[in-house]
Amino acid sequence: MTGAASGIGKATALLLARHGAKVHLVDIAADRLIEVADLVRAEGGEPVTHVVDVSDPAAMAELADAVFAGDAAVDLLHNNAGIGVGGRFIDLTLDDIQRTVGVNLLGTMYGLHYFLPRMRKQGRRGHIVNTASGAGLVPIPLLGTYSAAKHGVVALTEALHAEHADGQVGFSVVCPGVIDTPILRNSPQRGGLVDVDLIDRLAKRFAASPESVAEAVWDAYARRKVVVVVAPLFVTPAWWLRRLSPRAAQFGSRLTAVALEQVLGGAAERAGKKVNA
Ligand code: NAI
């Protein structure tokens, strides 16, 4: 499981531990990985830690080698590591764009590239769950690059599901709405439009728990669901509208952009600060 040292990954690791699983905890943050490993052990699981940057293909190749050197099979691969960046696309740096796509989309692709062929040959069924986002089903203004990367994760998962009809390996994509994890506060906000404190306060009020996403990951694995929406309040109505009437959805998206800039931008101005610009 990638992105295991925090938020959704940590909650999923602990849930898997309660099912008695051996869990390979993968993250770039070494210190937090050790803390999660202790918790996994306390819950009855067997942790193995790997400090890996998922956006580095050589490191992902080594990870797959290490996992399959110790274990004959992977029952569940969870490509979950992710980062965010907020602001209009025009205000993003090239580094923002490359990192966001590199971790969220390419990181997922590297996981698939190095694990899938082995999982197909491991002699028992496996399952792969990719964490996308509601922003992977509906384009979100001020999150365009993140949204594009997550749309890629959804599209790829559905294509893989179609390509692997023999069921040797199953594929799911989990699309959470707003979840109370550190990613919201840690994502840089470009262009000085957005007040991070306000995002934090709104998130605390409306967000669902990382444990609810962990349950959805387990459910996707156990029941082999393909697209799973969690915390649907901010996702499902817009997703349905987009499918029923793309033009109406585009209009709604413009209204959302204006509203976000008014609410979040106004708050940043009142606070008299440019945030993480
Ligand atoms: P989080 O910030 O709590 O956890 C993300 C983890 O990924 C962190 O431990 C971080 O160190 C790790 N990570 C970041 N870059 C990495 C890299 N290059 N290599 C390896 N590990 C790396 O955030 P959260 O919310 O648990 O995010 C998990 C996934 O859920 C992400 O893919 C995120 O995009 C997605 N998501 C989160 C939502 C939310 O509202 N929290 C909503 C929709 C999707």
Q: Would you kindly provide a written description of the structure presented here, covering whatever features stand out?
A:
The chain has 277 residues and is an alpha/beta fold. It has one domain: NAD(P)-binding Rossmann-like Domain (Rossmann fold, 3-Layer(aba) Sandwich). It is 54% helix and 12% strand. The strands form two sheets. The chain has a four-stranded parallel sheet with strand order 3-4-5-6, with helices on both faces. Helix 1 crosses helix 8, helix 4 runs parallel beside helix 5 and helix 9 packs antiparallel against helix 10. The radius of gyration is 19 Å and the shape is globular. The C terminus is likely disordered. Bound molecules: 1,4-dihydronicotinamide adenine dinucleotide.
> Main β-sheet: number of strands, strand sense, barrel status?
4 strands, parallel
CATH superfamily: NAD(P)-binding Rossmann-like Domain
- Give the CA-based shape: globular
What number of domains? Answer: 1
Number of helices, counting only DSSP H or I runs of 4 residues or more:
10
End-to-end CA span: 32 Å
Note the beta-strand portion. Answer: 5-15%
Number of strands: 6
Round the Cα radius of gyration to an integer and report it. Answer: 19 Å
* Second rung of CATH, namely the architecture: 3-Layer(aba) Sandwich
Helix content: 40-55%
- Low-confidence segments, given as residue ranges, are 273-277
Bound molecules: 1,4-dihydronicotinamide adenine dinucleotide
- SSE run: HEHEHEHEHEHHHEHH
Task: Return the structural class.
Answer: alpha/beta
Largest beta sheet: strand ordering: 3-4-5-6
Mean of the pLDDT scores? 93
CATH level 1 class label: Alpha Beta
> How is the CATH topology named?
Rossmann fold
